[in-house]
Amino acid sequence: MSLSLALVLALHVSRGLSFETSLLALLPADAQRPLVEKAVARMAEAGSRHAVMLVGHRDPAQAGLAADAAARRLSGQKGIAHVLAKIDADGAGQARDFYFPWRYRMLSAAQRSRLSREPDAALLGRTVEQLFSPIGPPRLAPLESDPFGLFSEGLLEAAGRSALRFADGRLVVSQGDTTWVVILVDLAEDAMSIAEQQTLLATFDLATADAKDAGAESVLRAGFLFHAAKAARQALWEISTIGLGSLLGILVLMALAFRSLKPLALVLLPILVGCVAALGASLLLFEKVHLLTLVFGTSIIGVAVDYGILFVSGCTTDEPWDAGDQRRQILPAVALAVVTSLLAYAALAAMPLPILRQMGLFTMIGLISAWLTAMLWVPLLATNMPRASGDAVSGLLLACRRAWPRVESSRPLAVALAAGAVLSLVGISRLRADDDLKQLYSSSPETVRQQEKVQKLMRLPSAGQFFLVSAPDEQALLEREEALTDELEAPASIAGLTGFTAVSQYAPSLKRQEADAALQRRRLYRPGALAEKLFARLESPEVAALSRRQASAKTAPLVPAAWLDAPLSTPFRPLWLHEEGAPWASVVTFSGDLDAAAVQRLIALAGRHEGVEFVDRLASLSALMGRLRLTISRLMLGGYAVISALLFLRYRGEAWRVLLPTVLACLGTAGLFGFLGLNCNLFCVFGLLLSLDMGVDYGIYMHDRGSGDFRVALLSTSLAAMTALLSFGLLALSRTPALNIFGLTVLLAISGSWLLTPCFSKSEDL
Amino acid sequence: MKIAILVGLLAQSALAAAPDADLQAIKKTLAPFATLTGTFEQTKKIRVIKKPLKSEGDFTLLKNKGVLWSTRKPMVSILRVRRDDIAQIKDGKATVVVSLKDQPALGLIGKVLFAVFSADVDELKRHFEFTRVTPPDAAGHWEASLRPRDAMVRKVVDRIELGGGRVVETLTLNEVNGDSSVIRFKNVVEDRPLSKEEAKLFE
Prior knowledge:
The complex is a heterodimer.
Chain A: H1 2-15, H2 34-48, E1 50-57, H3 60-74, E2 80-84, H4 91-99, H5 109-117, H6 120-132, H7 150-161, E3 165-167, E4 170-175, E5 178-187, H8 194-213, E6 218-222, H9 224-258, H10 261-285, H11 291-297, H12 299-312, H13 323-349, H14 354-381, H15 391-403, H16 411-429, E7 432-433, H17 445-457, E8 465-471, H18 474-489, E9 497-501, H19 503-506, H20 510-525, H21 530-537, H22 542-552, H23 560-565, E10 584-592, H24 596-608, E11 612-616, H25 617-651, H26 655-676, E12 679-680, H27 682-703, H28 710-731, H29 737-756
Parallel strand pairs in A: 7-12
Antiparallel strand pairs in A: 1-5, 1-6, 2-5, 3-4, 4-5, 8-10, 8-11, 9-10
Chain B: H1 2-16, H2 20-29, E1 35-45, E2 53-62, E3 66-73, E4 77-81, E5 85-90, E6 93-99, H3 108-117, H4 121-127, E7 128-134, E8 142-148, H5 151-154, E9 157-164, E10 168-175, E11 180-190, H6 196-201
Antiparallel strand pairs in B: 1-2, 1-11, 2-3, 3-4, 4-5, 5-6, 7-8, 8-9, 9-10, 10-11
C-alpha cells in the first residue's frame, strides 16, 4: 500500500510536481446557485489569465519608451501568450464608427433628462453657445449629422467611464503629474507548475528592471499570478523550514535520549511513511493539492512521532526487550490516541470547504499510515535492539518530576490554577471572532499595495462583489439592468461609488432605444422643431432638411449580439452570461471605495429590484467560515463530553487527573488570546480541538502505562510533547495568518498540558 | 500609401528637429506674469454653414489658477476653465459643467490656452507632440505646430498652430472634418490687478 503510494508520488515527481497555489480554486462551489457560480467563475477566469503592468513617468514619451523595454522582455517568453503594449486599432475611432448608425436611438441619462425637461430656448441657447465658444466641446461628427452634439457628448461620456485613454498608440492612465502606460499580458492557459510560475515571476521582475533602466519612475503590477507566485514561494519556504526544522529537532532529541542509531531510525520510519502516503494518496484523490495543505500537513510529523517513540522507549529499561510484548503493552493507549487524533482531523475533513477537507484528509491518511507502520512494521524491524541508554535523560526528567508541585500536596498551586481558570474565563469573554477569508492568504504587503494602486488607477471593479441580474428573456434582462443602473446613476446615490459597468450601457433595451428615438424626433427633428430653429439661427436653413433626412432614415435597432460581435466589446464580454438553454443572466460590476454602509445600501438596492441579486463572494465565504467555526466549537464541546465519558469508563474516579490538565491548558490559551486581543477564528478553535486530543493523550500515557516502567512513560511523554512543540511551534512562524494562529494555539495548549499533567498525578507514582 | 509614409517620415523628422532648446527659447520669450487680461476674436468655419461664426469677448488668466472666458458677442457666456474642471458662471456663481478628470478631451482648447499663456511647456508636451517649432526671431516672434496625443482628441483635432511673442497672439485649430477656428488675442495686459469679484471666481 505505502509502496504503491510511493510509486504514485514518484510518478508525479518525475512529471514535475504541480500544486495548486490559488486559494479561489479551493473554495466551495455554490451548488444551490449555479448562476452565481458561473458568474464568479467567468469573472475569476478573466482575472486569472491576465496580468497588468503599469509603467509610469512624468513625461508620457519617457513612460512609453520604458514600457516598450518591458514589453520587449515579456513578449515571446514561456507562459506568456500575448503582450499588448501598443494599440494598432484605434479604439476611439472604433466606438464612433460602431455607434454612428444608431446615434438617433441612444441618449445618456443626463441627455434624456435634459431633452425631456428643458424648454426649447434653453436647449437652443446651449447649442449655439457651444458652437460659438472658443472652448466648446469637440464634435466627433459633422454638424448636419449631430447638430446638437448629443452623439459626440455621449461618446466622450462613455470614454470617460473608463480610466484608460488612448495616447500615441498606447493605453494610458494618469494621476496627478504621472502618466502610466498600460501593458496587458495574456498568460498561457495551461495549468502552471510552481516552477513555471516562479520562472514567469522572474521574467516579470526582469521586465520591471528593464523598464526602470529605461527611466521609468514607477512600475506597478497586478494580477493573480503575482499573489499566487509570492504565496507559493512563501509556502515552499515554510514547508521546508517547518518540515526540516521539526525533523532536525526530533533527530537531536532522539539522539540525546537514546544515543543509538536504530531507535532513531525506527522513530523516523513511521513519519516518513506517513508523509509519503499522505502526499501520494492526496495526489490520487484530489485533482490538485494545495500548497497550504502541505504546510498544514507538516503537523503530521509532530503527531506521528509519538507512535514510534512510545514503542521504542521500552528499550531504555533494564528489562529484557521483546517487540511483541512492547506492542501489546502500548496498544490500548496508542490505539486510543490515534482514534482521538483521527476524530479531530475527521471533523476538519467533514467541513464543506474543499481546502479544509483536503487538509483533514491529507493529515488523516498520513496519521493512519504512520500508525500502521509503527504497529505492524516497526516491531518486525525492532529485533536485536541495542541496549539504548536513556538513563541520563530519564534520570533528569525523574528528578524534575519529583520536585514538581502537585495539586493535592500544594495548596498555593491549587489556588493559582483556580485563579488562572477564572482569569481565563474573563479573557475568553473578551475574545472576538474574525472569520475573514484573508486569514488563509499570505501575499506580500508590497504585492497587495501594487494591486490596490493599479485597481484604483484603472478603476477596476471591486473583487468578488457585483450585481447578478437574471430574466426570462433578453429584452427583459436589459430592462432590469436599466432599472438598476438608473438608480446607481442618480446623483450621490451611493457614497464612494465611482462607476459601474453593464451591457445595457452599450446596447440598451429596445424599449429604451424606441423611447430615446421618439424623444429626439419630437424635440429636435420633426418639422418646426429645434433643428430648424438652429440652422435658421446659423443662417443656413437648407441644412435643416439634410439633417432631418438623416434623422428619419430607417435604422435597425442595436441588439446585444451585434455589439458582442464587435471588437470594442472585448473587455465587457464576461459580463454577458447567456448560453444556449440557460436562463438569461448578466453581471453589473461597480468600482469605488465603498464602506460597509455603502455596501448595505447596494444590498438594499438589489432587494428592491426584481431579478437582481447582490453577490458578495468574500462576505459569504467569511460568513461560511464563521458558521464552520461554530460547528467546530460545538464539535469541541462534544469531544470533551465523549472523552470525559470514555475516561470515566476506564479510570472512574481518577478520570479528572487525565482530563483537567488539558482543560486548564486550553482555557488558559483561549483566555490569553482574549487578553492579547488576538482574534478567534476557525483555525484557533481547531487548534484547541487538536490540543484537547493530544493533551489527553499525554494524560493517558502517563496514567495508563499498564505494568510498564514509570520512567519509560515519563520519557516517552516528554519526548512526544517536545516534538509536538517543535513542529507546531514552527508552524506558528508561518506568514499565513490561519496557520500561524493554529500553530500558536497548539503550541501554547500543548505546552500547558505537558507542564500541568504532572501536577495532577497520583502520589504513589513517585 | 507612399504619400502617407512620406508624410509620416516628415512628421518624424520634424519632431526630431524640434529640440527642447527651441521650446525653451520660446518659454524664455513668454512673459512672466501673475495675471494676463485681454480681448479675443474668434472666426469659426464650419463646412455646411456658409457664413463663418464670429464671436468676441475678453479673458482673464490667473497664474496657477485658471482662465475666465467671457464671450460678449453674439451672446453673453462666461466659462471658467481650471486644470480639472470647466464651470459656467452666471450671476457671479460658478456651476461645474464638466469634470476634466473624466473627460480630458472636452477641455482641450482651454487647457492649451492656459498652458501656453502660463508658458507651461511640460503640460503642453503631456497632451501634444510638437511637430514644428520655429524659435523666436530677432523681433521675438515664434510659431509652433501641435498634434494631440490622445487618440480620441485626434479624431477631432488635426493640429493646433500657435504664434506669438511675449504672449500668444494667434491660435488656429484645424479639425479633422475640415472645420477650422482662428482666435486672435489683442490688448493683452500683464499683471492688471484683479477686481474682488474676479478674484472670488477663482477661489
